[in-house]
Design brief:
Blueprint lengths: L11 H33 L4 H49 L3 H7 L1 H24 L3 H16 L4 H45 L1 H6 L3 H27 L1 H25 L5 H43 L21 E9 L5 E10 L4 E6 L5 H6 L9 E6 L2 E2 L5 H6 L1 E4 L8 E2 H5 L8 H10 L3 H5 L8 E2 L8 H14 L4 E5 L7 H12 L5 E5 L3 H4 L4 E6 L2 E6 L1 H7 L1 H9 L6
Parallel strand pairs: 3-10, 3-11, 6-9, 9-10
Antiparallel strand pairs: 1-2, 1-4, 4-5, 7-8, 11-12
Length: about 575
Amino acid sequence: MIRLRRFLKDYVILLIIGPLCKLTEAVLELFIPLVTADIIDNGVLKGNADYVISHGLLMVAMGALGLSFALVCQKSASVTSQGFGTKLRNAMFRHINSFSHAELDKIGTPSLITRMTSDINQLQLAVAMLIRLVIRAPFLVIGALVMACTIDLKMSLIFFVASPLIAFVLYIVMNRSVPYFKDMQKKLDRVSLLSRENLSGNRVIRAFNKQEEDEAVFEKANRELADTSARVGRISALLSPVTYVISQAAIIAIVWFGAVKVNVGQLQTGEIIALVNYMTQILLAMIVVSNLVVIFTKAFASASRVNEVFDTQPSVTEKTNDTIDTVSGAPAVEFRNVSFGYGDGGDAVKDISFTARKGQTIGIIGGTGSGKTTLINLIPRFYDPRKGEVLVNGINAKEYSFRQLRGNMGIVPQKAVLQSGTIRSNLLWGNKNADDEKINKALKISQSYEFVSKLPEGTDSEVTAGGGNFSGGQKQRLTIARALVGDPEILILDDSASALDMATDAALRRELAAIKGMTVFIISQRVSAVRDSDKILVLENSELVGQGTHKELLENCELYREICISQGAEKQ
């Protein structure tokens, strides 16, 4: 947690004021038993009503003053903890946005969500408790021991016996339960992962009638989380009864031996009451300390998980240049002996070389897992190659800023994803300044205009989360339109017409071919989608086994010929 203190630098004054106010409240609380004893001994026992009233009013005033300090502390804790959480969450979100796809793959979306919500909430709670109780609770324990000594040194020995016993019980309980808290966070990650998979893939689960199996898997993960929580609960359940037995035994001893001293005139009745109150204060403070141990143990586990995110540095970093002059006449994209693999695994693409001239259409075809998507993900630098170079307009892609590199590209990923809002708000992602003419042009090219124009509100029609209120083909066409609104120099279509019928797909490709100067990459499993391309890249087992036109590949590439025969597209 120490490493996260930078997010508290704007709240230094509140970090001082809050504990000081709580400390003042604790001092007033320690004097209350003495005032109570004085009222009993000098007021009640002597029948002095005025004395009782005056000192009773003093107690009320002390209580009101303590409440005022407590409220100031509470305000300080609230503002500081919420501000800390907000700054930490914003910083973490910014850092996650700097990750390349490799880091996102490594940590995982469900885990990142849990860290940004549950873990940061736990840290917020720890900050609030730091201000409210970290100083107050230990001070009350020590203060009560000191005040007991001032009343009667021999009677205070009971306190010095009971307090270590209570502390020992707390230590045993916490020592047994603390390891389970880290385990609980991991199991919570698992529950989050299953919840996300179930909600995002609900249609598929229902299509295969897998609800019962999915529920069984979720129930198992949930039960494991519940079992771990129950273990902690069972151990923690020992805390209150054992500590209360010790404290009540101590109170009995105080009353027993105190009564003897009262009889011989060494102590007064009010002082016995004060000693009992101090023992109660010690007990309650010790329980607060135990709760703080739990809270801070969870917080340290959460801080470790949050720091793990901050310690993860993006493997793909950008140059600070705003603009770079490109090489005139250079290919739009060039791969020079490029190899790349995920993590410590083997190469997903191996020693790939090709060029794509400006205005050309490049088709990419191959079997599942052959490296098609990996290949095009290297162009916008979602990943960096292990070996070789990727050049865009004659310049190594690593030399560009992300804004310049990706700003000239339109990328349509395999999975068509729309954001909640309207059709217009989604299309404006491609160009926030696009007018209706540009939007309608993009809709027409992507074959979306017909169905969008039939909607009651047109481009202002609502889009639900993920675009769930549109069909797969409609979502694909809208994501293509979103990419086209930005007038990209390079358009990447990653199997983004798979849900379109043959006629719509053909119309889309005709419209794209009519756009002058735009380099288009089309990934598809269908020969019909790539056969008219200026160049077709054929991938197999991560290697480029053929490149050329449809006619050339039919003659020279056995794999391409097999694909064409399997689809009945072998005719030239």
